[in-house]
Amino acid sequence: xxxxxxxxxxxxxxxxxxxxxxxxxxxxxxxxxxxxxxxxxxxxxxxxxxxxxxxxxxxxxxxxxxxxxxxxxxxxxxxxxxxxxxxxxxxxxxxxxxxxxxxxxxxxxxxxxxxxxxxxxxxxxxxxxxxxxxxxxxxxxxxxxxxxxxxxxxxxxxxxxxxxxxxxxxxxxxxxxxxxxxxxxxxxxxxxxxxxxxxxxxxxxxxxxxxxxxxxxxxxxxxxxxxxxxxxxxxxxxxxxxxxxxxxxxxxxxxxxxxxxxxxxxxxxxxxxxxxxxxxxxxxxxxxxxxxxxx
Length: 295
Hints:
Porin, 14 strands, globular, 56% strand
């Protein structure tokens, strides 16, 4: 009996460090969550919560889908100087007073990186009554390392938008309000709260375009950030060009500079977007291209 008891005790001593190590795994922060996603918002310094009518709102603030009248499609592809590849695609459509949307965002790192890829999927629903829109997004996030180990989690976002015709939008969003580990080690998905406003200084149905946006972000274990963006240009008979300027602190770990520039070509229902960033974690002189379609 004494020998059997000693054997059991020895087995427990050997298993205990492994069990404790599994419980104390360090959460990893997916870099993909610090990227601007929408090329339009990248040109506006990352300000995105008060932008509406674009399919990318499924990642940014689900309430922004509420102004889509029929359908919206958006996508972008980006290759970084270190060889990393990023792409996203999103779509949304309207049913009565509801707008439904979803998207996929993928980041494939270079072969020399310890992380193989980051991935996120979203599914959103928003209901609009009068000037107010309420929306929710279910988001799946995964991170795979170069050894093949994968960490998967799910999280939920909530959004509120007050759309005053085409003139002004007041918006509030909470990202990663609640998170669940699906499998593998933990992911760091900090809660962030966003308050934003966008104002059209001119009627967007006329030739001149001038939009300003401001966004304030409170994120767990991070300093408060304020983002400012300006979009100006001219559109005549559905064809035109706009320029964008953004300024504000980037998310922690993103490696981005405060200033960003962008532009867009308007071709009726199609928009070709461009954004420039001086520096990111994945390289310098980043040029982003994207396409938006709304109907």
